[in-house]
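Backbone shape codes:
***
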Amino acid sequence: MREVVIVDGCRTAVGRRKGMFADYRSDELAAVVLDELVDRSKINKDVVEDVILGCVTQVNEQGGNIARTAALIAGFPSHVPGVTIDRQCGSSQQAVHFGAQAIAAGDMDIVVAGGVENMTRAPMFSNMQEVKPSDKLTSKYDIVNQGISAEKMAAKWGFTRKELDVFAYESHQKALAAIEKGHFKQEIVPAETWDENGHSQTAETDEGPRADTTMDALGGLKPVFQEDGNITAGNASQMSDGASAVLLMSREKAEALGLQPKARIVARSVVGSDPTLMLTGPIEATRKVLKKSGLTIDHIGRYEVNEAFAPVPLAWLNETNADAEKLNVNGGAIALGHPLGATGTKLLVSLVNELKRSENKYGLLAICEGMGMANATVIERL
């Protein structure tokens, strides 16, 4: 099997729902990232063999295979194909896995993998319309929304409302500090947007983190999914708009082109988990990917575990005995946002850059997914 490397990666800033990207077409937003990614790497677009994008709500401009339309908008020649996949919140992480598998197997040498989601323009579940789950499914499993799953997780692990809110508060503080230090500047592609008066402005800073967030403010929010519950808008991820992508190559091809890869993919995993308690998947996915890599959790210098809801990374910490000081060190989705299809490669890009900044060797990315699944990836800084 051939070694697969990450040559480069980039992302847009993440906009709040109904925020700076509210009037930006999803296919055009993805194209901004695709164009910049190839430009940064100084390769010709015609050598890319596939564009694989994750997108969860494939409706309207996000329908019709947005990977193909975005690639054409970005100026890729017509012979470069594109495919769009949906593994829920881990869609673009799965795009990386599919691209890496194609390269490792020798089918391809150069693949762009990424994702896009504009949750303002394609609201969550709008692709489902009024369709209800099949009776044949609900007869086998208790099908609930993710908020109820998060409540069930909080109850199972005994997390208090205060513990969840403290985690959320710290996510905002870490994100604000990272922005202040310029940690995301290199990875963010500035995008031209327009204000309500039609004036041009540049979107280059994540909109989600709130400088005015306090424990009192978080504590005053009402539960969203369960009257006596602990999950609020404050300790859950934000609905967001954004795009991201990475350039994958075989190690041999990168060397032949005179490129210096930033990281290599050490191991990949994907698992199914309980569809009712659907957010626990990252725990088993982590165990599986570590076993495949031959590493232990102590070898990993930085972890990115998506903050879909605060109980998810907290339970992951509890079950893996990981070091909380290495987790989501620049904040997570509670503060920075969660543009569903884009989140996987957004976090991967940030992880690659954080490994370089902190001079750590190994990083791990794990994301929980709707209906009970999860992906995990281990990378090594080069």
Remarks:
- The chain has a mean pLDDT of 97.
- The CA atoms of residues 269 and 374 lie 8 Å apart.
- Residues 161-181 form the longest helix (21 residues).
- The chain has twelve helices and twelve strands.
